[in-house]
Write a structure and sequence with these properties.
Blueprint: H1 5-21, E1 31-33, E2 37-40, E3 43-46, H2 48-58, H3 63-79, H4 83-87, H5 90-104, H6 117-132, H7 136-140, H8 142-152, H9 158-171, H10 175-180, H11 182-191, E4 196-200, H12 210-214, H13 220-228, H14 243-247, E5 253-257, H15 266-271
Antiparallel strand pairs: 1-2, 2-3, 4-5
Helix pairs in contact: 2-6, 5-9, 6-11, 8-9
């Protein structure tokens, strides 16, 4: 039976965070605010990209918001920038469901975007925020749109989310997260320096390539380990989702801090 402990833990965290942010629908206010800016047990937290956009748009800096963004930035510096994508983002959760449907429908078309357009899109939204005086991506972000519509009622802006779903379903497998999302690009930049990494023990690897098959970012991440003699995934694209660790029956992959000798395997995680 396939080991899915990291995947199940991640789903539990994803759903729990979603429920907490949707708690006002049930008459509760566990968390005030949105994924862009919120208050949790009296502590203000802010998405660093949203704060950067707002600062560029307003051409001023509001220090309390900067502190709130630095808290979040510090957290993702430790756990991996794109851990936001795989462990928190509600659109990622939605698109995982779309990927499941796509697989069941056996849709083979998979457009590959060249040249990392999401970094260009990230630069574009920052420049547009500066020029327009508006936090551009916060207005059209599928994450913000989805959460606003669920909380306050459905509007035509949901077409943005629908477009992302159709892109992933019929044109490019996980295309939004892999190639286009500016927020994912921003967290990738943080992820390059993050401490928590997927580690590799070459002596245990049988080169079965199961890790390649389950990585939604792309097989190049794990393939690089097997072919290049690397001992960890250094790329900021890795979301530390743990799917490759679950897929590795030999225990060659694990999660641990950069530079540390020990790491947590899926089996150890389950006993912890």
């Amino acid at each position: 039976m396939r080991n899915r402990r990291w995947t199940l833990a991640r789903k539990l965290v994803q759903l729990s965070i979603l429920v907490l942010f949707l708690s006002p629908l049930f008459g509760l206010k566990v968390i005030r605010g949105t994924l862009g800016m919120s208050q949790v047990f009296g502590v203000f937290l802010a998405d660093p990209l949203a704060v950067l956009e707002a600062a560029l748009a307003a051409k001023t800096v509001y220090l309390p918001v900067i502190y709130a963004a630095l808290l979040v930035l510090g957290f993702y510096f430790i756990v991996g920038g794109r851990a936001y994508c795989s462990w928190v983002c509600p659109v990622n959760l939605l698109l995982e469901g779309v990927a499941w449907v796509r697989e069941r429908l056996k849709i083979g078309r998979d457009l590959v975007f060249q040249g990392n357009p999401r970094y260009k899109l990230l630069g574009g939204v920052l420049i547009l925020s500066l020029l327009s005086g508006l936090p551009v991506y916060e207005i059209v972000s599928p994450v913000a749109v989805l959460m606003r519509d669920i909380l306050f009622g459905w509007g035509t802006e949901i077409l943005i989310v629908l477009a992302v779903v159709l892109l992933d379903l019929f044109i490019s497998r996980r295309g939004w997260c892999r190639y286009l999302c500016p927020l994912g690009a921003f967290y990738s930049l943080i992820g390059r320096f993050s401490l928590l990494r997927v580690k590799f023990q070459p002596s245990k690897c049988t080169n079965c390539a199961r890790c390649d098959e389950v990585c939604y970012v792309g097989p190049h991440l794990t393939r690089q380990l097997r072919s290049g003699g690397e001992t960890l995934i250094a790329s900021g694209d890795c979301s530390n989702c743990g799917a490759c660790i679950d897929a590795c029956k030999e225990g060659a992959l694990s999660l641990g801090l950069r530079g540390s000798a020990g790491a947590v395997t899926s089996g150890q995680a389950s006993r912890g």
